[in-house]
Design brief:
With 200 residues, this protein is of the alpha/beta class. The chain contains 5 helices and 6 strands; from the N terminus they run βαβαβαβββαα. Helix 1 links the parallel strand 1 and strand 2.
């Protein structure tokens, strides 16, 4: 059975990823098991480039097949911001609440009433040699609320209502979010690829 390294130290994300992938013939490990491995840099301007760079870095560092993702929120009235800078939108040391407050403030200045936005996630797979192997993308369209709602999720989840629902990602049960979210949709593409991959 081959091992797939998940390029994260977030236990919640590990559970989410493994529950969606669950591909026969693969076992999963996370960066928590590789304390000597540092953090991959995310210096690129697209989700695709960042995901590929991280997957290749972690694969090279561990000698395993590696999965890494990059994701963010794109708000139409803000010309796609915060985008790849979603996690650093209000500064490197800002909290999730700080980032949400800045987003709402900037969106209010535009006078936009549609408040359209989308979450984007890209998942990359790299070989044990550190070569890029596969890329899967997931998109979830929706709207931005006027104030945070819900206690679940993280990041911008309390501000985002996916199309077809009345609740934010932070209000929806995880069972639903993990079916419709951008990351879930990207991981389903990854799951299909892994199930067909001829590996040792």
């Amino acid at each position: 059975m081959s091992s797939l390294l998940l390029g994260t130290r977030n236990p919640g994300k590990v559970i989410e990823i493994t529950s969606i992938l669950a591909v026969a013939g693969w076992s999963f490990s996370s960066l928590e098991e590789f304390s000597y491995v540092g953090e991959a840099e995310e210096n690129f301007m697209t989700f695709e480039e960042n995901a590929i760079a991280k997957a290749c870095f972690y694969a090279s560092a561990t000698g395993l097949f590696a999965l890494a993702d990059d994701s963010g929120l794109e708000v139409a009235a803000l010309r796609g911001a915060p985008g790849v800078f979603s996690a650093r939108y209000a500064g490197a040391q800002a909290s999730d609440a700080d980032r949400r407050a800045l987003l709402l403030s900037e969106l209010a200045k535009t006078g936009d009433t549609a408040r359209r936005a989308r979450f984007v996630a890209v998942v990359a797979i790299a070989t044990p040699d550190g070569d890029f192997l596969n890329l899967s993308e997931g998109i979830c369209d929706g709207t931005i609320t006027h104030a945070p709602r819900g206690a679940g999720g993280f990041g911008y989840d309390p501000l985002f209502i996916p199309d077809g629902y009345d609740q934010t990602f932070a209000e929806l049960p995880n069972t639903i979010k993990n079916q419709i979210s951008h990351r879930a949709r990207a991981l389903m593409g990854t799951r299909t690829f892994l199930s067909q991959l001829d590996h040792p």
